[in-house]
Each structure stands twice: as structure tokens, then as C-alpha cells.
Write a structure and sequence with these properties.
Order of helices and strands: HHHHHHHHHH
Helix content: over 70%
Largest sheet: none
Number of domains: 2
Radius of gyration: 20 Å
Strand content: under 5%
Shape: elongated
CATH architecture of the largest domain: Orthogonal Bundle
Number of helices: 10
Structural class: mainly alpha
Number of strands: 0
CATH topology of the largest domain: Arc Repressor Mutant, subunit A
CATH class of the largest domain: Mainly Alpha
CATH superfamily of the largest domain: Winged helix-like DNA-binding domain superfamily/Winged helix DNA-binding domain
């Protein structure tokens, strides 16, 4: 598969509707994508489902694949986006947030850090509640409900660019406010939002 000509041939076959080369791509990329996904999520549960979805998307979007030169970054971008969606869904689960928080903090600091975590969470919620209504609505749909930009645009009847604009403003405000609270707050922001 390292041979660019072979990959070009596989891509041409895919674009022509032949699904047989998809198995070759799966065999070659699966171990790499699995390790990438495991390092990203930190747990193995659900990775197989995500990787199946990656290859479904490759098949569905096969006409958009231009060449072997861009395919590697294309497949890893699809994987990263699906992993981010999965991570957002998982982090909206309070029990999982607490489990991750416990794993990331040594037991001797656990009680103190848990108190800090809840204080930061409360401050974060206060900052989110202070956002303008549209920004708050879009931020919650994106981060808490895990909706894509397109799904938010469809749900609210607005353009994707409008979603991106309001989300960027919300994130900028949150970063600014959290930066004023200190490093732990920034870590919380990057881990959970």
C-alpha cells in the first residue's frame, strides 16, 4: 500500500464504484487508525464502530477523493472528526467526566481536585449562561449535545457559516474568561470543550 501508484489505482477503482479495494484500504489503515483512535480517546470501547463509520464515509464520499497524495490526511481527518464527535458525546455524560477526572488526578489529591473541578464547572456554566442567546444556544448544541455544524444549521434554520461565526465568538469569550481564572481552568476548557 506504500506504493503511491497502487493507492492511485485503488482510488480510481473506488471512484468508479468498485467496492473491492475498500477491503485493501481497511486492512492497511485499520491498525494505524485504531492506534490513533485509542491514543485520542484513551479507551478502546467504541473504536471499532467509529472506524467502520470512517470507511462508510470513505465509500459515500469516494467521488471527492482526489489522489493518493491527499488520501492519508483525508482519512485521518475523517477519523479525527468522528473521534471529536464521540468525545463530545461521552463528555456530556457526567459519570464519564467524573471517571476521567479521577483517572487524571492522583488519589492523594482526588478530594481537593474534585472540589476544584466542580467549582470550575460551576464557573464555566456561569460564563456560558452569560453568553448572548444565539451564541449560548449554538455552543450548547455543539458541545453538550455533540451536534455537527451542519446539524445545528439545519436545526436552527441558519447557514453553517453563521453557526461557525457564533461558535467562534463563544469559544473566544470562554477562553478569555477561563484564562483569567488560571491554568487549571484552561486545562478544563481544553479537556471538556
Amino acid at each position: 500500500m506504500a506504493d503511491k501508484l497502487l493507492l492511485d489505482k485503488i482510488i480510481v477503482e473506488l471512484r468508479n464504484g468498485n467496492d473491492a479495494p475498500l477491503e485493501k484500504l481497511f486492512s492497511y489503515y485499520y491498525p494505524r487508525l485504531y492506534n490513533f483512535s485509542k491514543s485520542f480517546l484513551k479507551i478502546e470501547d467504541g473504536i471499532d464502530d467509529i472506524l467502520q463509520e470512517v470507511f462508510v464515509k470513505i465509500w459515500q464520499n469516494r467521488k471527492k477523493i482526489k489522489s493518493a497524495a491527499t488520501f492519508n490526511s483525508y482519512i485521518f481527518t475523517i477519523t479525527r472528526n468522528l473521534l471529536l464527535n464521540e468525545l463530545r458525546k461521552r463528555l456530556s455524560n457526567q459519570n464519564l467526566k467524573e471517571e476521567i477526572q479521577k483517572l487524571s488526578v492522583g488519589s492523594e489529591y482526588s478530594v481537593l481536585k474534585q472540589v476544584e473541578y466542580h467549582e470550575l464547572q460551576e464557573k464555566m456554566n456561569n460564563i456560558i449562561n452569560e453568553l448572548p442567546n444565539r451564541q449560548k444556544e449554538i455552543f450548547i448544541l455543539s458541545r453538550a449535545e455533540g451536534l455537527s455544524h451542519k446539524e445545528i444549521a439545519d436545526k436552527l434554520g441558519i447557514k453553517i457559516k453563521t453557526v461557525e461565526y457564533h461558535l467562534a465568538l463563544a469559544v473566544r469569550t470562554l477562553k478569555k474568561e477561563l484564562k483569567a481564572l488560571g491554568l487549571m481552568s484552561l486545562l478544563y476548557f481544553y479537556l471538556f470543550f
